[in-house]
Amino acid sequence: MREVHTGVAIREALTLAMEMDDRVFLAGEGIGVSIHDNPLMPTYGLLETFGRRRVKDTPVSEAAIAGLAVGASTMGLLPVVEIMFFPFITLASDMLVNHAGKLRYLSGGKSSFPLTVRVKAGMFGAGCQHSHNLEAWLAHAPGLKLAFPSCPADAKGLLLSAIFDPDPVIIVEDMGLYWMQGPAPEGDVRVPLGKAAVKRPGADATVVGYGRAVLAALEAASELEAEGVSVEVIDLRSLVPLDRETILESLSRTGRLVTVHDATKFCGFGAELAAIAAEEGFASLKAPVVRVAGPDIPVPFSPPLQEFYMPNAQKIAAAVRSIL
Amino acid sequence: MREVHTGVAIREALTLAMEMDDRVFLAGEGIGVSIHDNPLMPTYGLLETFGRRRVKDTPVSEAAIAGLAVGASTMGLLPVVEIMFFPFITLASDMLVNHAGKLRYLSGGKSSFPLTVRVKAGMFGAGCQHSHNLEAWLAHAPGLKLAFPSCPADAKGLLLSAIFDPDPVIIVEDMGLYWMQGPAPEGDVRVPLGKAAVKRPGADATVVGYGRAVLAALEAASELEAEGVSVEVIDLRSLVPLDRETILESLSRTGRLVTVHDATKFCGFGAELAAIAAEEGFASLKAPVVRVAGPDIPVPFSPPLQEFYMPNAQKIAAAVRSIL
Amino acid sequence: MTAKQDATLRRTVLEKMYLARAFEDCISALAAEQGRLPGMQILATGQEAAAAAALALGKDDVMVTNHRSHVHLLARGADPKTLLAEIMGKESGVNHGKSGTLHLIVPEVNALMTSTVVGASPLLALGAAFAQQYKETNALTMVFFGDGAAAEGSVHEAMNMAGVWKLPLLFVCENNCWAGAQSFKEHCSAGNIASRASSYGMPGELVNGNDPDDVLNTALELASMCRDGRGPALMELTTYRMHGHGEYDKQHYVDPAEIEFWAERDPIVMFSSRLEQEGVLGEGQAEAMRREAADKVAEALKFADESPYPAPEAALEHVWASPEHI
Amino acid sequence: MTAKQDATLRRTVLEKMYLARAFEDCISALAAEQGRLPGMQILATGQEAAAAAALALGKDDVMVTNHRSHVHLLARGADPKTLLAEIMGKESGVNHGKSGTLHLIVPEVNALMTSTVVGASPLLALGAAFAQQYKETNALTMVFFGDGAAAEGSVHEAMNMAGVWKLPLLFVCENNCWAGAQSFKEHCSAGNIASRASSYGMPGELVNGNDPDDVLNTALELASMCRDGRGPALMELTTYRMHGHGEYDKQHYVDPAEIEFWAERDPIVMFSSRLEQEGVLGEGQAEAMRREAADKVAEALKFADESPYPAPEAALEHVWASPEHI
Ligand SMILES: Cc1ncc(C[n+]2csc(CCOP(=O)(O)OP(=O)(O)O)c2C)c(N)n1
Ligand SMILES: Cc1ncc(C[n+]2csc(CCOP(=O)(O)OP(=O)(O)O)c2C)c(N)n1
Ligand SMILES: [Mg+2]
Ligand SMILES: [Mg+2]
Fold first, then answer.
1. What phi and psi values does residue A101 have, to the nearest 5 degrees?
2. pLDDT at residue C5 in the model
3. Is the predicted pLDDT of residue C3 greater than 90, yes or no?
4. CATH assignment of the domain containing D88
5. Fewest CB within 10 A of the end CB: N or C in chain C?
6. Is B140–A143 a contact, with Cβ atoms under 8 angstroms apart?
7. Beta-carbon contacts below 8 Å between A and D
8. Is any ligand 1 atom within 6 A of the Cβ of residue C180?
9. What's the whole-number mean pLDDT along residues A5-13?
10. Ligand nearest to the CA of C146
11. Cα-based distances in Å from D203 to D131, D222, D231, D232
């Protein structure tokens, strides 16, 4: 299969969706006219292709961006809005949690809100007000679906699924992936929400992650293979709905679980994964679950400090070794 | 010890703190002049006692209420602000998460932010935009402490600790408790943050909870005692810092853990407790962990639906039975 | 067309005002009976002239409202039966008991979204108005919010974006002098809300919110500007909540003279006598309207009372549009 | 006192402008070298007249700023050495490498809080100004924010509450014509930000943001009103960011004529020649100031370059004021 950058794969999904369906429009800060004159950015060139009616540069107003999506979606449009950096999801959180996730329920099932929110995430040397992964918040909000791809094919396929899903979906894009290449199919090839991918089969331990952390997990698995340890790596791809079956099935074979994500550990998504193991996979567990995650601190700015913060292959490998 | 209502105990803490220290002021919506002419409400009468300088009724502006606390606290005041209902914490979440919790870190330890946020919570027949417990969000935000009392003595003692703590503390008040009486000491008796209470000792299973759910857990324990099952009930009181020692010590004796809270289950605080058990208490565990929590839906309005949502003694007892 | 000329429309306004008053009187009476209604009850008694704003809308226009919504919804044509059933938490309620009184949503009459998060409605309306512009319809969105809500950042963001994009969005601020127990001047240091419209490049009109003619004329005028693509507009209705914030609110903090002042300006009393004086209503017609409203509400009460509660497990329904999961 | 009369103050303003320019020129040069600086660099080149606003403050006044803070901080007296070290992520940095360029905080000079969350600074300033009023000090708080920030709900809430409580809070909006890649008229449909002050019951002044005298005079006047208990005020500086949004921004979306227009209005060039013409500066004095600024920056660069990075585990420090835990 051809290789493309993740940023380009995302743009393919946006382009396809907009070509296929006039109900799809984009809105966000700097998604049309952008300071980034870079073809690897997902929305590069879309304003020129689709025009100002369908590509809306908004004022710096995150709550309004989310409100726009909520209101427009129930009017029959398929909004795809962007929150520039993950920490700013706080500003949109009332609209997402109390409205996007609840209005269908409040209506007694009469209305629906088929919106998509793309959130840009990642640790990129800008400090804690630009870098703060909060996927655990969104996963804890009823009525919202949540995807978190790790590669170009999934970034494209999950986004296509999100756009045409009848419910609100939030999709987290780790910006570090924009610059990475990988195979991705051409055309409208969707990756279903709620289906994990076994990125590498293994027998001795299961590592479950999503986003950039999957790449670190795969690296750790290679490292451990050299030591004769066989690690299964599961890429969740979608956090809500969550593919429990794939996790529990893997656990039933390996008996050992390591979770990994870039977000902080305490009450992070890894806690839910560990809890599922302790609750539903207890009979399989041969060793303690280990969570690899950011320490419970804000993301620091200085390069060696940020490096200290980041989960990486070494930390994952050490975690696996600790429970063999 | 004398018995007081929780609402009155909270007012005692506020009154004492204000009497002891002029740096303490209160701000929030309807905390001075209130539609509730009810002496069981925590801020009843405080405007009359302390005047308009120290008891500030704010406009309906949750972000500004939180910003007020952040800015005033680093100027040497000890703000105690109120967020009227828990779902509205979303509107204050940028200020709390990206500012209260991070500015000290960003300053390199030069500044501190000794603020207190009282959040009113609970399920009271108003539906999902008034009732949505989000303590797991706050626990996942570095730099914020978090308390969640279950009785008058703790509501008072934790609040006093929070007000004089040098870090930002959020304290959740389940409004249902306002109307309940219990023993509480007079005077400046503080309950330290980070110390759980064993509300009832037991040998067969450990139930860990906080807030109103502790009462349900105690009820369940009585019910199970009649069946010859001895349940230890731990009231966390403070979620951050968390008293892991007390939990793990109990687990080492009982080998069985049930967690309980009113918030929804997926990525709720119970997940963190279960994860700690799976990670640090694995050797003690004799059975799967069970999480009792709200189902992953918005809190419904209609009485039988809200009843269905709520964790209660029966559900907790059933959970314990399921792992004996 | 001006409202003065349209006798039928003015009669309809009065009819809806009677209906809303009767509906809320019924709720007030029920709320006074211990255990009769679940949760809190928030009434718009005294603010019925807002019905005229809702009646300035066409069938395809969208309405977005807030916690104090009965007048808006009934004016728009919502069925009192299913509204009352919802308020009681019954299965036959317009939202199957999921919502209750605080966020009644009636998509059937294009009352598409309702929020009890103060200040949120204008953001929802922003999205609806955007969709109308995007689809090049001739429709507009009308959003109701309170004076207290105007302090929320969300309202500012909605007005700003609507102004920049020239969306067909009519902001209707019902300034009933109070936000909870806080008087207007305690939360706003400008004398009114309407004049801030210029910050967003839109017209702002201050109208007598107890005079349905004023409300109707201004709403029709501003609505037609919105429809013409001239962008959003703001109207502020000066009015009063006669029952306080909610039914449990004894208004201990309100000067009784203030309540007295507004009681003398009851919009229904004033409007019905004006219509009678002008001959728009014949003798006895107002009384007939009032009785008809009472009958409808009695019927609604019977319907709601006789309806069963939903089954407990129904709590799990309606979260997802896609096949249920998790 | 007016600035015209105060030659010393005006000379200090120019000095700080030179210092800021030299500091940012240094960063710009470093940023152009691959791998020399971590993260993004956001400069206020062209906006140096804002230094005059900061210099209108007294020692006890508080300053709150945002992502584009170098001018404000240097004018306030922050040390270029520890600022540059922080920007490089060094242990000797003013925030020990925790913050970096985007949220430089310098409590030593009462630059108490800084946020890169656009629109957040005014809310932080609200709290500081409240504390000043509460403690009955004579001090005020000055907050800087951009034109883009004015679209955020947070700014509205801060202005509204400050207006209601008459807080000593001077809002300074630096309208540099752009918010990221969005031009002013794309995010604000009123012609300016200043005129919205009336919505909050405060004065609003539009000033030439490239003229330090204008900035200084207006800031002094409004600051003294704030100090007198007359409540908050808003001033808007019309200015321009000569380096685009950040150093990586090639401004492909900007009409070169616009940049040319503003280049001809360089605040340093204009102000120094005015001071020379007026005899406030003698011959060669401006050039001496420029050279002194360059020397200070060279010294700062040496300091920062020679400083070590923090130890990795230092990441765990400074979260808590109480004994560390979790
Ligand atoms: C975000 C938010 N904050 C607080 C509340 C609690 N609350 C409900 S109604 C109300 C007062 C609103 O006043 P106004 O907007 O004037 O509307 P009115 O009730 O007068 O119709 C408040 C503070 C809420 N529902 N939402
Ligand atoms: C809440 C938030 N949204 C978006 C951003 C990304 N961002 C950084 S600067 C900027 C533009 C701000 O424009 P303006 O307020 O005019 O300040 P300027 O950069 O022009 O000085 C944006 C959108 C942010 N930092 N914070
Ligand atoms: Mg009101
Ligand atoms: Mg700008």
1. -80, -15
2. 62
3. no
4. 3.40.50.970
5. N
6. no
7. 129
8. yes
9. 98
10. 1
11. 22, 8, 9, 8
CA C22 to chain centroid, in Å, comes to 15
Q: Do D326 and A296 touch (CB under 8 A)?
A: yes
* For residue D194, pLDDT beyond 70: yes
Return the pLDDT at C1: 47
User: Ligand 2: which of A84, A86, A89 to mutate, judged by most atoms within 8 Å of the beta carbon?
Assistant: A84
CATH code, residues A197-323: 3.40.50.920
Question: Is residue D318 in a domain?
Answer: no
Q: Which chains touch A (3 or more CB pairs under 8 A)?
A: B, C, D
Q: Does pLDDT of C323 surpass 90?
A: no
d(CA B30, CA B118): 13
Point out which residues pair with D205 in neighbouring strands. D235
Nearest CA in chain A to C117: A98
Tokens of B238: 């403070």
Flag whether pLDDT at A315 surpasses 70: yes
Per-residue tokens: C49 = 């002239």
Q: Please check the confidence at residue C326 and state whether its pLDDT lies above 50.
A: no
Low-confidence ranges of chain B (pLDDT < 70): none
Residues of A labelled catalytic: 130
pLDDT value at residue D125:
99
Q: Decide whether any atom of ligand 1 lies within 6 Å of the C175 Cβ.
A: no
How far apart, in whole angstroms, are the C-alpha atoms of residue D8 and residue C326? 70
- pTM of the shown model: 0.98
Looking at the DSSP bridge assignments, the partners of residue A118 are A82, A171
Residues 6+ positions from B109 with CB-CB distance below 8 Å: D96, D317, D318
C322 domain-assigned: no
Name the residue in chain C with its Cα closest to that of A114.
C321
CB-based burial, D300-326: b 16+ in 10 Å, e otherwise? bbebbeebebbebebbbbbbbbeeeeb
Give the ligand 1 atom nearest the CA of C175.
16
Measured between alpha carbons, how far is C225 from C162 in angstroms, rounded to an integer? Answer: 14
Assigned domain for D314 exists: no
Alpha-carbon distance A69 to A63, whole Å? 10
Per-residue confidence band for D323, with pLDDT thresholds at 50, 70 and 90: confident
Q: Tens digit of pLDDT for each residue in D243-268?
A: 999 999 999 999 999 999 999 999 99
List residues near ligand 2 (CB under 6 A). A 29, 60, 62, 84, 88, 91; D 67-68, 116-119, 146-149, 176, 178-180, 241, 245
Chain D residues with beta carbon closer than 8 angstroms to that of C196: 196, 199
CB neighbours (10 Å) of residue C248?
14
pLDDT at D286: 97
Nearest Cα to Cα of residue C118 among C165, C174, C164, C166: C174
User: Which residues of chain C have a CB within 8 Å of the CB of D161?
Assistant: 151
Q: What is the percent of chain A with per-residue pLDDT over 90, rounded to a whole number?
A: 100
How many whole angstroms from its chain centre is CA D236?
13
- Selected residue of C118, C147, C189 to mutate for chain D interface (largest D Cβ count, 10 A): C189
Residue D324, pLDDT score: 61
- Condensed to tens digits (0 to 9), the pLDDT of residues D57-101 reads 999 999 999 999 999 999 999 999 999 999 999 999 999 999 999
d(CA C219, CA C234) in angstroms, rounded, equals: 9
Q: Above pLDDT 90, what percent of chain C?
A: 97
What architecture (CATH level 2) is domain B2-184?
3-Layer(aba) Sandwich (3.40)
Q: Are C247 and C68 in contact (CB under 8 A)?
A: no
Q: HSE (CB half, 13 Å, CA atoms) of B79?
A: 31
The yes-or-no verdict on residue A93 having pLDDT over 70 is yes
Q: Is residue C313 part of a domain?
A: no
- By residue range, what is the domain housing residue C287? 3-307
How many domains, chain C?
1
Is B101's Cβ below 8 Å from some Cβ in A?
yes
Pick from B5, B262, B14: nearest CA to B162: B14
Q: Domain segments of chain A: what residues?
A: 2-184, 197-323
